[in-house]
Amino acid sequence: MISYIKGKLADVAADSIVIDVSGIGWQVYVPGQVIDRLPAVGETVKIHTWLQVREDAMTLFGFLTKDDLRIFKLLIGVNGIGPKNALAVLSVMTKDDLRFAILGDDPKAIAKTPGVGTKTAQRLILELKDKISLEDAFEQKLAHVPKAEEDASGVKAEAVMALTALGYSSSEAFRALNGIEITETMDVETLLKQALKNMAMI
């Protein structure tokens, strides 16, 4: 198994890149959001990879972080989701948005992916909900967001924890918080009051 490839970025296409390693060009298929975060051509890049072996082809799929790769592996473990579908999902939405869509039971968000219908999105949520924890979702989200967004996400995380402590499910908590604009000055108590109002309307 090829764990990662590190070399000079030689070429960038719509859905793949070529990495030059000691004169050998490795073609790696990547989601669109990886393309947007790549360094300039000619600079060094490290891509974490997964190798698909079939009778007619050997194909590399790559990601900038191990966490991206982990989410990709979870996706291809879902019945009906192949590597290309998984790349499409991760091109339409970030891995963080995907986590929250799964935890929030939001198949419509996932079904926006070309080639992934509502039934497949629902199956994806059903099969992966137990494999993604609420704590992990927020930990990954807070690990790489700007300070202002981190503060807002921190308040939201506390609100979700409080709602689940009150006996609501994670899905119910996310649905109640969905659509509430969280400002820098909003505290957990204010957010909870608004969320509980939304609960009454769900």
Task: Walk me through what this model shows.
- By secondary structure, this protein is an alpha+beta fold.
- It has helices at 32-35, 66-76, 83-92, 95-103, 107-110, 118-128, 134-142, 147-165, 170-177, 188-201, and strands at 4-12, 16-21, 24-29, 44-53, 58-63.
- The radius of gyration is 19 Å and the shape is elongated.
Distance between the termini: 47 Å
Average pLDDT number: 84
Main beta sheet strand tally, sense and closure: 5 strands, mixed, barrel
The SSE string, one letter per element, is EEEHEEHHHHHHHHH
Relative helix content:
40-55%
Stretches with pLDDT under 50, minimum 5 residues? 142-151
Q: Calculate Rg over CA atoms.
A: 19 Å
Strand content: 15-25%
Shape field: elongated
Please give the number of β-strands: 5
Strand order of the largest sheet: 1-2-3-5-4
Q: Number of helical runs?
A: 10
What structural class results from the helix and strand content?
Answer: alpha+beta
Observed structural traits:
202 residues, alpha+beta, five-stranded mixed barrel
List the helices and strands and how they pair.
Blueprint: E1 4-12, E2 16-21, E3 24-29, H1 32-35, E4 44-53, E5 58-63, H2 66-76, H3 83-92, H4 95-103, H5 107-110, H6 118-128, H7 134-142, H8 147-165, H9 170-177, H10 188-201
Parallel strand pairs: 3-5
Antiparallel strand pairs: 1-2, 1-4, 2-3, 4-5
